[in-house]
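REQUEST FORM: STRUCTURE PREDICTION
Request ID: SP-0412
Submitted by: Lab K.M.
Chain count: 1
Length (residues): 1478
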Amino acid sequence: MVASVNFAVGSLVWLEDPDVSWIDGQVLEINGDELKVQCTSDKTVVCKASSVYPKDPEFPSCGVDDMTKLAYLNEPGVLQNLKVRYDINEIYTYTGNILIAVNPFRRLPHLYDGHMMEQYKGAAIGELSPHPFAVADSAYRQMINDRISQSILVSGESGAGKTESTKSLMRYLAFMGGRAADEGRSVEQKVLESNPVLEAFGNAKTVRNNNSSRFGKFVELQFDDRGRISGAAIRTYLLERSRVCQVSSPERNYHCFYMLCAAPPEDIKKFRVGSARSFRYLNQSECIELDGIDDPKEYALTRNAMSVVGISDEEQDAIFRVVAAVLHLGNVVFAKGSEPDSSEPKDDDARNHLKIAAELFMCDEKGLEDSLCKRVIVTRDDKILKVLDPVAATINRDALAKIVYSRLFDWLVNKINSSIGQDPSSKILIGVLDIYGFESFKTNSFEQFCINLTNEKLQQHFNQHVFKMEQEEYTKEQINWSYIEFIDNQDVLDLIEKKPSGILALLDEACMFPRSTHETFAQKLYQTFKDHKRFSKPKLARSDFTVVHYAGDVTYQTEFFLDKNKDYVVPEHQAILSASKCPFVSGLFPPLPEESSKSSKFSSIGARFKQQLQSLLETLNATEPHYIRCVKPNNALKPAIFENTNVLQQLRCGGVLEAIRISCAGYPTRKNFNEFIARFGILETNVASWSCDEITACKRILEKVKLEGYQVGKTKVFLRAGQMAELDARRTEVLGRSAAKIQMKFRSYRCRKRFVLLRQSAIEIQNVCRGQIARHRFECLRREDACVKIQKYYRRFLARKSYNSMYSSAVCIQAGMRGMAARNDLLFRRKKKAAILIQSQCRRHLARLRYLKLKRASIAMQCAWRGRVARRELRKLRMAAKETGALQEAKSKLEKEVEELTWRLQLEKRIRADVEEAKTQENAKLQAALKELQLEFQETKDKLTKECEAAKKASEQVPAVQEVPVADHELVNKITAENETLKATVRELERKIEETEKKYEETSKLCEERLQEAKDAEAKITELKATVQSLEGKLVEMEAHGEALHQQVLSNSSQPLENGQDGNAQKLDSDSYEKNNKSQIERLHENVDVLITCVEKNLGFCQGKPVAAITVYRCLVQWNAFEAEKTSVFDRVIQTIGIAFENQDDNEQMAYWLSNTTMLLFLLQRTLKGNGGSQNPAAPTSFFGRVAQSFRGPAFTDVKVGKDVIRVVEAKYPALLFKQQLTAYVETMYGIIRDNLKREISPLLASCIQAPRAKGNALRASVKSFGQAGPSTNWHSIVDNLEALLCTMKENFVPPYLTQKIFSQIFAHINVQLFNSLLLRRECCTFSNGEFVKSGLAELETWCGQAKEEFVGSAWDELKHTRQAVGFLVIHQKSRISYDDIANDLCPILSVQQLYRVCTLYWDDNYNTRSVSPDVISNMKVLVADDSSNDHSFLLEDSARLPFSVDEICNSFQEKDYSEVKSPEELTENSDFQFLVE
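STATUS: Completed
RESULT:
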């Protein structure tokens, strides 16, 4: 990867370091091929130039999100980029389309919430920050658009975060294509809930990870034609079966064994288990318990998860019986038996464990012992029973334990798949592969060999994919790439799996020979591959071998290769377990077919695994791959630790560096034209003045430096390895010369500035001295004048003091004398007034005593007479109440009859409609048949006419007929027969037409009869309604009469009886109030129809007030609709308003009805007194209560409509319901207008967040001065939309309060969209883009100022997040700003996470200025880590709630007088609406 680079003194370089892999430094000296480098660790190193890599001096402080954007694509550059991004919690990085995920070992919930998924929905790769959601979205979009299955390969070593990445992918795919499944659980949820089960039985503690998956997993999500998930399947690969029997410290066996030993006491007793240390399969390792792992709790969670995925309690018990049986099998120890080379259980303890195992398997104990200690050899003629020695019996026992556990794991996988459900009709899928990474331990056995074979296969697939992407890139850019070589690892794959001489083939061959050992197998390998470059034999090793893999050399120990490769079930084991009384155990070992049991063909783990691997690769080759490489930053599994050596090794094992090598084989450095010109334009001094395009400018720059081998594509410049460093070196030279010239000019400027300053200082000193002398002379003259004035004023003061003393003495004597005379006169007047007052009080007391005595006598007489009159009126009211009750009963009966007749009328109407419909259909059929018959008749008639004409012509040709008489007879007969046939057809058609007409007449007659019946029913209903209305009129008259009597009684009681007048003279004549009024119900309905017909039109506004709303309100008040228990007026009004919703896109119509509805709601709010809790308060029952109530007049408000002030009434249920419906309509219309505007401006906002790229020469574009970025047409379009809506709201006089709320929510929406885009897209967090957005915000601010606060309110404040973020982007010298300045002054509204995000994403695309200082970034990082418990996302959310209430709307109305609003002429001309004119 190292290319020849011409380094210069001062160049920044990378060199290898044994501690941190790579360390940076600066070149001090160059001696031929040797460089002297000053490292950042303050040590000086001399190294070869060929072992050094160049370092990018302009590397961004926050790294780049795509490795292909690196100026130098090499190992140290990749490592530095990952470390820098990891330090700022950017754990995801692209390498082209490959995603690298570094495990943060901490929770980052804001990266995976639902809002983040919405952001990545439909976003292309690279448009937003790197994320697994972007990879999943790309796979989903390609699957939907191209109808091609996709696959996502997640790889990495144990603990790198593969499982979490897989879960994120599954969540996003379920978000895009999820659907509800059975029992309320989605397919994705079932797949995720199967993880605890698979982890319990397939995960174990290893050296590197406490929860390492010891199997590979491929999850297939199947989709239907609409892109919805229709099914799923889980495939597993290469479960590590040997771990069941062999475990070394500090590792552990599978988790399920330890969970079972820590189960509740009842389960321990049921499954006959005890402490984990008492079982041989578990106590081989000293690690029994794990810190932070609660095995009893995990056991309960696993049982619960098994229930969730559909495993019944009986099946769970059977599963754990099998697990317990495996543990007891491990404790069966064998010793020599009585026969030679035989074996038997060693002691009673071994026999006890064997007995327990047989009981748990529910099989015969003796048969189980024989299957372990004996073997049956089948020959052609007979069966031979062979006994096994203790060693062979132990191997046989372990083989039984491994096959039982393997079959159990396979059963679990099949059960989970059947629970999830698959879609056989699905043609497209997305597969997610979670598989183990490359492994290289101190001891590597058969499992590591198979795992590394898998990674070699996947690496070849990965290399082909990367090479394909390179080819696509070169083809897209139209450059020559035919000479680029492809790096392949096919020789390693041939070494391992080629037949018949591959390692796997030789291993299978060794397993088939009974006397083969691992040593003979190793010797066979040494002989076969002694000259292979990828194979070697370690020194001092008898049976080890080394394979040179793509990720490094791995040495394998062959001791257990043969045993682990054998994959067959001992027939005795098959027979004993298939005969088990437990259905579950016998189901794990179904009886084999007779042909299979007799076959002796050998089967191996390696061969089966090779087949599975081939099947997996075929699936992957049939799909479009996507890659996620997970990296574990440290082995301590702690956050904020990045170990360079460890990460570099994982990058090698994950193939990332191999992909970089492929890129380096071609053109590793690729720069866009504008970036290339911005960086290297200074190499050609005249480039800024050229008028040529970017391609020509790039070519001239490259020609100027005389580079060779580069390529210029359509949008990028492609450079060979080392050419970027050469360009940087030339650029450094030019910058050095420019710096010297700048220093010379600056020194000259500084000297001149110093001289000018000295000269100016001398002149100022002289001026100061002259001024001081003049001021001193002036001070002396001023002092002399002051002395004279002081003497003058002092003499005047002494004279005035003597005069004032004499004057004050005289005045004091005069005042004393006058006061004494006045006091004497006042005393005499007080005595006289007191005597008069005593006399008046005494006379008043005597007169009051006489008055009170007369008053008590009068009141007693008046009370007696009023009581007599009241009792007489009470008797009359009781008689009237009885008559009212009888009328109420009659009214109820008639209402029931009306309802019944109404129901019958509706039934008759439905029957009539059905008959009309049937009649219409029958008529249509008959008319169609009639038309067909008429057509047929016409055709027949035409044929007959033609035949007649033909016959006539034939008869005219007499000579021809006479010559052939036989032919003439035949023709005449034929014509005659045809005529008869046509006549018969005509008669048939006429008969059918007559029948059709008869049926039509009968149907018409039946319809007329039913119509007459319906009319009779309607007449009867009308008559009953009239009767009901007359009864209602009588009731109203009775109530009015009673009210009049109350008023009369009250008036009688309020007048005192004088001179013995008789009360009967003031008695009201009750007969004068008994009038028969005509019913007004029908007229009211007619008036409602007239009102609705008028209101449906656009009545406009009068003096800024909606005419329709005020007209409707006055009519409702006049008709007493608010106090009615039942009325249909409200429903008619609501239906009229609802018509506006038919065209929701018309803001003009919606604003008109919003204005009217709001006004009507305001008037109702001021009119209705009651609420839902007390709709109809009880009236007073006593006579005196009614009298007291009549004293209270109606309540009035301060709002005037017409010529009257609004009177507050008690709200009835219809009025309250009407008010609720109006409220709902106001809220709905408000939301529609707001959402319409959001839909209009949302597409424009996507273009307003990023400044348009300048066309032409990029260098000229980059030297523009600050503040020249103007708003684009999209910003103007947004302002135009806002102005259009504001004009619409003003024209329709919508309350300013609602207008303010609409614009506040619109500006909040703009704020959310702009701010979230800034935080998610790094290309938006630039200096120039900040200026662009700032200019657009200035347009909005200008509009807000012009629109006036009355209509806009505080909408401008809703943009505070975006304003502060943009303000931070455009300030200069950010590196000098402290965190307190940013948090308290610049961006006080932003959270720590948001500030951290903006600071780390910022980059200057024009002047390459740096962001805030590293200390500020570090402080923010600590605060973000402390705030990690906060699950809130750093993104803003757009709220759609309604920001107002009915009371707030009504309180916003300032106008109180609506009396000048003129009603429409259409109503005022009607005599029934004359109240609108009054």
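NOTES: Residues 1080-1228 form one domain.
Reviewed by: T.R.
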